[in-house]
Amino acid sequence: AGSGAGADMRTEISTAAAFVTRLLRAAGGVGEEQLRCFRECLQEAMREHYKHHWFPLVPSKGSGYRCIRINHKMDPLIGKAAGMIGLSHERLFQLLPSELTLWVDPFEVSYRIGEDGSICVLYESPQPGGKATKQVESRTSCKEDWRTGRSSPSKSYNMMTVSS
Q: Residues with Cβ < 8 Å from 139, sequence gap 6 or more?
């Protein structure tokens, strides 16, 4: 692989595809072989879709175009990959969160489940030549946020203050 756009986005795409595949696996009812095929098809669809919309020097440019979204409509890339393994959109809606947003940008992949869920970072790497990005450790508690709907676990002590 040369220095073409496709070479640079491999980690971001595989991170995003693996995440959606994990969601499907967690829901159950989809075989490992199907899941493997789904992940490969999704990565291929994303690579094709992002080919001319990947700007490592301006990571936020084209972010909306690369955003994967499920909200009463199935994201076409997920729908396409699912079609390859015989999963209908109806079945996908049963298996995946009804509100899912996945942002796949150079150096960062993040997601949000629910309209007002907190945004969780799946992958983050410092931009070459840029300033080092914030540490991901501060967001490792994301799974708990997702369950409790709280955006910051450090604020949990507020829950104990009861006004009489």
A: 120, 121
pTM: 0.75
80 part of a folded domain: yes
CATH of the domain at 57: 3.90.640.90
The residue count of the chain comes to 164
For the chain, what percent of residues have pLDDT higher than 70? Answer: 74
Question: How does pLDDT run across 98-119, given as a tens digit for each residue?
Answer: 999 999 999 999 999 998 889 9
Range of the domain at 51: 9-124
CA within 13 Å, CB half, 84: 18
What is the maximal distance between C-alpha atoms in the chain?
Answer: 66
70 membership: H or E segment, kind and range: strand 68-71
Whether the CB-CB separation of 116 and 100 falls below 8 Å is answered with: no
DSSP code string of 118-138: PPEEEEE-PPTTSPPPPPSGG
Q: Are strands 68-71 and 99-105 parallel, antiparallel or unpaired?
A: antiparallel
Question: Which strand (E) or helix (H) includes residue 20?
Answer: helix 10-27
Tokens of 137: 């450790």
From residue 56, how far is each of 11, 99, 128 by CA, in Å? 13, 28, 9
